[in-house]
Design goal:
The chain has 139 residues and is an alpha+beta fold. Helix content is 35%, strand content 18%. It has helices spanning 7-15, 22-32, 40-46, 54-66, 111-119, and strands at 38-39, 70-74, 80-84, 92-96, 102-105, 130-133. The protein is flat.
């Protein structure tokens, strides 16, 4: 049985002027179906056998981050992780320093912080906030 790719992923590629290929759809499917951000190696291991080589995967991830389809995250692990970019659902993460489990955090910095910076003349304001600690299974 042929696996159907997400219609949204096809549209996302089209909307960003990227050619729709089987490899690109498979990478988006892997990232889109993950509950937490994945490393490139984790993505590679979840792709169908002989889907693409590592060099193609890294080029694809670079294109996806440049087009804001995927966000590249740095949790100070010595490598990047990748998750779906979502304008409406901005979130942060908590990372267990024991088992490396990653979970979204259900809050963000207050909007007043951004407004204060805008009043000081800043524009295009962005922020990152990640938490590190031991989960209940590791304590």
């Amino acid at each position: 049985m042929k696996k159907e790719h997400s219609h949204n992923h096809t549209d996302a590629l089209k909307d960003n002027g990227l050619k729709i290929t089987k490899n690109r759809l498979e990478v988006l499917d892997v990232i889109g179906h993950s509950d937490s951000p994945l490393s490139a190696e984790e993505i590679f291991s979840k792709l169908p056998t002989n889907s693409c080589d590592r060099a193609t995967l890294f080029r694809t991830l670079k294109q996806f981050t440049e087009h804001n389809l995927v966000e590249m995250l740095d949790f100070s692990e010595g490598f990047h992780r990748y998750g779906m970019h979502c304008e409406e659902h901005h979130h942060h993460h908590v990372i267990c320093t024991g088992c490396k489990k990653i979970e979204p955090v259900p809050f963000c910095v207050p909007k007043e912080y951004e407004l204060s910076l805008k009043r000081r003349g800043y524009s295009n304001i962005q922020h990152k906030m990640e938490f590190f600690g031991l989960c209940s299974s590791c304590t």
